[in-house]
Write a structure and sequence with these properties.
Distance between the termini: 70 Å
Number of helices: 14
Strand content: 15-25%
Number of domains: 3
Helix content: 25-40%
CATH topology of the largest domain: Rossmann fold
Structural class: alpha+beta
Radius of gyration: 25 Å
CATH class of the largest domain: Alpha Beta
Largest sheet: 5 strands, mixed
Number of strands: 20
Length: 472
């Protein structure tokens, strides 16, 4: 006979893995109550209607994918699945959103910014009603703000929550509410969630005063898989509710007079890159394993589009940056590979003997990579491509033979290049072409070849299924 087991809300439901300072991924164990509470809140209190057309954008390795699937199905909505090819191609994603009249999407801040910056049609033709974002600090500007100002029926939700809790707070915004701020709040706690902002003595701080964010309640994880010591360190007893626990996030925030939380930054060296949580010490530890590296420091800088980029300052003897990057690619995921490598003689120290990161040179004014001989654009296509690269990478001097990834490009930048090239040249290119042909000269040659084929196609047209009659 089949045995039907009774599953309780306290039983384990899933494990999500995230970056750890030791160099090994950390498994976070969640109970069924986490997803149950989140979906119940989304159904009844979030303001997001059921029965809508929902996009399944997030990859299955991330907990948001569970939220997308469960909310759509439980709310009697329709779930639209994406292939990896469409997920990485903003032009095809734009078409997919418009053609299927999708109404609910959840994207990281970086991905959402890339899509909206690329797409003019979404502002005019999309059927969007609810856009949820999170994973990074949200910056509301440019086309995204234009989209919300032009479409008063669209609500943008800024979600906050580490992997140890999933979504803990929400800040809805739209034109009608009049709260389209450049750096929006992360909002108020959702139902059955407690958020505290505490000082170093685990005491609450007054409104407007910065402190560390601690979280508790129904969505708190059960702990780290097979890491009892780390669990005891990060999940502390709740002094305000005996018998319960709080998670020490490492995030700094403060309460507003209206009861919203303003996110200030990180207390430690952990940040978000393209929606992925990254421990800077983990990257530093891996770089130090490379031969001839004496010391290193990793900094984060914000691009003009509001995304985070990694800068590695390295002290060493005749370090070959190309070989170092190959070494790192075999040991770290792509989002943890620094965009810039700055060789320096020594790391500056402050009077306390700690690294003075404010004194480290700015990458744009420093030789950050072995460079090829500078060659200026030689034709109209190269000139337009150079302008696109300059805008995306934030650099003024880029030669047509410079390698995209050696001068600070990454996979998300590559998608931006392809989408802007499509708008400029009306030519379809795969994002993979930037990886294969990583110079302006190479991409220009590809565009010229596509143009030549298009201009020299045989005259006349054929209906699908027709074949010329051939006499042999």
């Amino acid at each position: 006979d089949n045995v039907i087991e009774q599953i309780s809300l306290k039983d384990p439901a899933y494990i999500i893995y995230t970056s750890g300072s030791t160099g090994s991924p950390i498994g976070i164990l969640h109970a069924h109550r986490c997803l149950s509470n989140l979906i119940q809140w989304e159904l009844h209190e979030s303001g997001i209607q059921g029965g809508l057309r929902n996009l399944q954008y997030t990859a299955l390795a991330f907990d948001v994918s569970l939220q997308e699937m469960l909310f759509s199905l439980i709310s009697t909505g329709t779930l639209y699945l994406l292939s990896d090819e469409i997920r990485g191609d903003m032009r095809r994603l734009e078409t997919f959103l418009i053609r299927n009249k999708l109404e609910v999407v959840f994207m990281t801040c970086s991905a959402l910014s890339t899509l909206i910056n690329f797409s003019d049609k979404i502002i005019e033709k999309a059927s969007l009603k609810h856009i949820m974002t999170g994973g990074e600090r949200l910056r509301l500007s440019g086309p995204l703000k234009k989209l919300l100002n032009k479409n008063s029926d669209i609500t943008l939700y800024n979600f906050y929550g580490p992997s140890e809790s999933h979504v803990m707070t929400s800040y809805p915004m739209n034109r009608k509410l009049g709260n389209l701020l450049p750096y929006p709040f992360i909002g108020k706690p959702i139902s059955s969630i407690q958020v505290y902002i505490l000082d170093e003595n685990i005491a609450t701080v007054p409104v407007g005063v910065c402190g560390e964010i601690y979280i508790g309640g129904a969505q708190l994880a059960m702990g780290y898989l097979n890491r009892s010591e780390l669990t005891e360190q990060r999940f502390i007893s709740n002094p305000f509710n005996p018998g319960e626990f709080l998670y020490k996030t490492g995030d700094i925030g403060r309460w507003s007079q209206e009861g919203n939380i303003e996110f200030i930054g990180r207390r430690d060296e952990q940040i978000k890159i393209h929606g992925n949580r990254v421990e800077l010490r983990e990257i530093e530890s891996m770089i130090k394993k490379y031969p001839d590296i004496i010391d290193t420091a990793i900094l984060v800088r914000e691009t003009t589009e509001g995304n985070n980029e990694l800068v590695a300052y390295i002290v060493g003897k005749s370090v070959k940056i190309d070989k170092l990057k190959v070494f790192l690619r075999g040991r770290l995921p792509s989002y943890m590979i620094p965009s810039y490598f700055v060789p320096i003689k020594r790391l500056p120290l402050n009077p306390n003997g700690k690294i003075d990161k404010k004194s480290l040179p700015i990458p744009e004014n420093t030789l950050v990579h072995p460079v090829t001989e500078y060659v200026a654009p030689r034709n109209e296509i190269e000139t337009k491509l150079t302008a696109i690269w300059q805008e995306i990478l934030g650099k003024k001097r880029i030669g047509v033979h410079d390698d995209f990834f050696k001068i600070g490009g990454n996979s998300l930048n590559a998608i931006s290049v392809i989408t802007k090239a499509y708008k400029e040249f009306d030519i379809e290119l795969s994002p993979n072409r930037v990886f294969v042909t990583s110079t302006i000269a190479g991409l220009s040659s590809e565009i010229e070849a596509i143009n030549w084929v298009s201009n020299n196609e045989p005259s006349g047209s054929f209906e699908e299924g027709e074949v010329d009659e051939v006499t042999i």
